[in-house]
Amino acid sequence: MDTARLSPLEPLARAYRRAVPEHPADDGLFGPRSIVWRVNRDRCFPLAGMRSLMVQALHPLAMAGVAEHSTWRRDPFGRLAATSSYLLTTTYGDTASALAAAAWVRKIHTHVRGVDAETGLPYSAEDPALLLWVHAAMVESIITVVQRYGRALDDGDADRYVAEMVRFAEIVGVPTADVPTTVASLREHIESVGLRQVTPAARDAIGIVLDAPDLDDDMRELWRDLGQVAVGTLPEWAREMYGFDAPPAELMEREPVRQLLGALDLAFESLPGVLEARQRIELRTRA
Amino acid sequence: MSASTGAIRQSRVSRGAALARLALRIGGRYLARSPRLLFASVERRGELRHDLALRSADEVAEELGSMKGVLMKLGQMASYIYEDMPATFRASMSRLQQKAPPMTPALAASVIVAELGAPPDQVFAEWDPLPFAAASIGQVHRAITHDGRAVAVKVQYPGIARSITSDLRNVGLLRRIVGAAFPGLDTRSLVDELGDRLQEEVDYVREAESQELFARYYDGHAFIGVPHVVAELSTSRVLTSELVSGASFDELLGWDQQERDLAAETIHRFVFRSLYRLHAFNGDPHPGNYLFHRGGRVTFLDFGLTKLFTEDDLAPLIDAVRFLVFDKDYEAFRAALERAGFLRAGAPVPTSVVVDRFGQFYGTVLQDAAMTITPAYASAIVRRFFDARGPLAPYSDVPRAYVIMQRINLGLYAVLGSLNATANWRRIAEEIWPFRNGPPSTPIGEAEAAWLSKKTEKVLKN
Q: H-helix or E-strand containing B242?
């Protein structure tokens, strides 16, 4: 694909280039032998990311924090790139870069507070319960999507992944003892959160995720298909809250979904620096 | 034929025969070398990323499965026939083409075990565990057979055939993506034709048959070499053929202009003779598929994209040449293009425009004179070929049967252009056009005539 058509993905490529250091001081928070290193570069991450956002948005206070304090609406791909950059830096960066990125996020969070118009409840981005919700929704989405469409990840490794990712929650301020360490307890935690509902802000946000602006027509079609697949991977309660129909079974089959992801990934990899960043990661896992 | 022209031809043929013997002696230097020396002379390419080598079929699938390999290949093919491609896309395609890493020695050996029944060091007397070259869906190792022949063994990535087949079945997605990358192209015929060829390319048995077709036809040709296949060491995933040592295209560019002209003439002859006489087209004009020898001899490699043509496929093309170049009957020329499907019938465009636009593709054969194919000339031809703004663009198409032919034609111009090659291309073409059967016009042509008469004798004897 012509790179001009891929310009929305350009910030994401830049994030990749910058987050994966050429000369890291150490192996960072997880290390090249970790499951986190293996899973966090799976090619099905665009799908995992979409699903994460859909689940995360169903907590009205988490959604309010994003809706009222972020530039995502003006620049959704920039926002996506920032989130990806954070995940990549904390995964593949050295310890100092990872902790610096986390400190920056915590600093921003001190300003994210207010009252949610829909529920009338006060919120703060420093609230460990909200941080845990966002963490749990993301980690559970990654596991679900990678197990279904990514490289082989058995249940034991999935549990190890969840346990390793505790560190990821800790650095933004979730008390270690609160963070689930298995897939089962992670899902249990999500289901135990009482305040789950779809607000107008969430509908608005997910509308943009599913039909991203600034995409060329042909890319847009692929992106929409991917969005439908993401909808199909949602837990039933979440899908029903949004009122989405279950997509047809043939759309959800592993082979065509992987073909769609592969095509997108190839386009992404053709952007300058992405391939090289991936090779740096690969070489370190082999060292 | 009158007695006098017969005599002239006779003397030409014998001169040609002497030249052929000379060329054989030159070529013989390679053949006379011991397999061991030949084995050693084919060097491993430095740029293969052995540090990133693929260790398992799973890693192959991750790297090249799920549309990635198929799209890279389609993009590469389409890039030959789509000049309007943005430079950025071209750059990213070439980055991706260099990307596929080799297999580890163990993974490559596992393919040999699966295909030939034993590890490579038992199947072969000598086996180099590191590949010396990359192939589109595999890699090439050098080896020595138990009966002492130096061979090149192309080993296919495990699992890639299955994944390519499955990816090609998803035509809906392919058409959408190719349509996005190459706006304005007839993606239906392009994807269908290239998909068919790619499907064939994964079957090395088919490639072996094509290669043998060429190898047998050109057997004994002083200037055109095609390595024979070693059938007993070839399967659908492993292709073993004679190892040949020669200079790369980049090295040829460093030789003097006379060498470059000779090489260009041989390539030109190979392409046109294969099309008009063998009715076969080797659709991969990549300079990496040629090996060059001093004095104009060229070895042609890689027959994975061979397309066979019927008389009916070729008839309108031959008519077009005849009407434009010889009869100067422009209405008939236009009708031939319409019959071939290049131009929609009844397009509201004057015939003079048709002659102007399509005639340029015959620019090298319009005049009986020496002509230099400069890089500028070559790229102008290629650029105008798919000129989306031209007056004929709405009515022009590349019919499915000719997609591959266009690809090699344009690839051929690109190669001849970068060689800055000079020849009387018209005279050479006249030797080869079946409706002309012109006399030899160059020393290589004389050697070719000698080879042909020997070939005919052989056929008559048998």
A: strand B238-242
